Structure formats: structure tokens, C-alpha cells
Amino acid sequence: MTDNKEELVQRAKLAEQAERYDDMAQSMKKVTELGAELSNEERNLLSVAYKNVKTEGSEKKQQMAKEYREKVEHELRDICHDVLDLLDKFLIPKAGNPESKVATGDDRNSVVEKSQQSYQEAFDIAKDKMQPTHPIRLGLALNFSVFYYEILNSPDKACQLAKQAFDDAIAELDTLNEDSYKDSTLIMQLLRDNLTLWTSDTAGDEQEGGGEAGEAGGN
Cα dist. 15→9, 10, 53, 59, 126 in Å? Predict the structure, then answer.
């Protein structure tokens, strides 16, 4: 049974009152397809229906995009936390304990290489997906630079990495998220403190003609 024009218009009005704009648009579409000239009221109903369907669809898409972005950020945080957890609990202790320091090179080098690779992969993800002021990115830079200094005995690389992370964050202070402001500025301070310590240690070693590099934190 075919709906007549009056019934379709009435159905569209009811749908508008219920804010069911998809149903409203469907009813007015059928009215238009009947081929008769639309009254001012009917044209207005058609316009209102499709305007709200379009707006509603746009808002849904924006919400979906926001939810997807938050999902990706959450997954990135989980990945970075997992890598840091593995590094802190398993890889770095094996690379830094006294036994591994005096062990024959192959075993220790293997663990160190895996640690460095894990750090680098996590750091590359952070640099690609996060602002320089993001606390996770800053935290990775801090830990990675300490790894270079304490485990790899590469003070120049440690200073270079820490300085770059600090300078990049300073250059984009206006992007600091209010929720993470405290964490980000604390890590930036730690980066600067390490730079001060490491550069003074390096200068002292050069004056003494060489020697063992100082550590950012004692074990």
C-alpha cells in the first residue's frame, strides 16, 4: 500500500518532534518523489530533515574520529610502557649487573644490542606520533640517554640525545597539555640536570687525560 502525501507529511512532522531526522528525511523524500509541487511548509520540512541528517552525520564522524585517535594514543602509550617495563625489569639489569660487565663479550653484547634496539624502536614511534613535550616521549629520551651514558659508555651520544629532546620541548612549550604539565616539566628538568652533570664529568675527564665516565645515578 502506497502512503499518500498527507500521511507522509504528517509522519515527517512527528519524526521532527521526536528528533528522528533520518525518518523525517525518508518521509519527505517519498513526498518529493510523488512528483507534485511542494508547498512552502513541505519544502521547509525537507530542508530541515536533510540539514539535521547532515549535521548529525558530521557530528558522529567527528566523534568517531576522536574515539579512534584516543584509541591509537592509548595503544601507543601501552606499547611504550611495555617496552620500558621490559627494559627496566629484564634487559637493562642484565646489561648493567657486575656479572655481565665482566662476562665474555658475546652474551653481554647481545643483551645490550636488544636493549638498544627496543629503545630505538619505542623512541622512533614516540617521535613520529607524539609532541616533543609529551611526557612519554620525554621519558623515553631521558631513559635512552641514560642508557647511552651508563651502559654503552657513550657520553657524547647521551648528551646529544638529551639536549635534542630538551631543545625540542622548549621550542614547543605552547603545546604542553595542562594535564601533563607537571610530568613534562619535571622530566625536562631531569634532562637538563643530567646534561649539566655529564658535560662537567666529560670536561673533568678530559682535563685528567681520560678516565671512567660518571653515572647519572648510582646503583
Answer: 10, 9, 12, 20, 48
The DSSP-derived string for 59-127 is HHHHHHHHHHHHHHHHHHHHHHHHHHHHIIIIIHHHHHSHHHHHS-HHHHHHHHHHHHHHHHHHHHHHH
Backbone phi and psi for residue 140, each to the nearest 5 degrees, phi listed first: -65, -45
Integer CA distances (angstroms), 176 to 57, 125, 139, in order: 32, 19, 15
Cα 124 to Cα 116: distance, rounded to the nearest angstrom: 12
- Full pLDDT tens readout for the chain, 219 residues: 456 888 999 998 998 888 888 888 888 888 888 877 788 888 888 888 877 776 555 566 666 666 766 665 666 566 666 666 666 665 556 555 555 444 445 656 777 787 788 888 888 888 888 889 988 889 889 989 988 998 888 999 999 999 999 999 999 888 787 778 888 899 999 999 999 999 887 666 665 554 443 333 333
- Does the model's pTM come out above 0.70? no
The length of the chain in residues reads 219
Residue intervals in the chain for CATH 1.20.190.20: 130-219
CATH number of the domain at 130-219, out of 3.40.30.10, 1.20.190.20, 3.40.640.10, 3.30.470.20?
Answer: 1.20.190.20
* Integer Cα distance of 134 and 80 in angstroms: 12
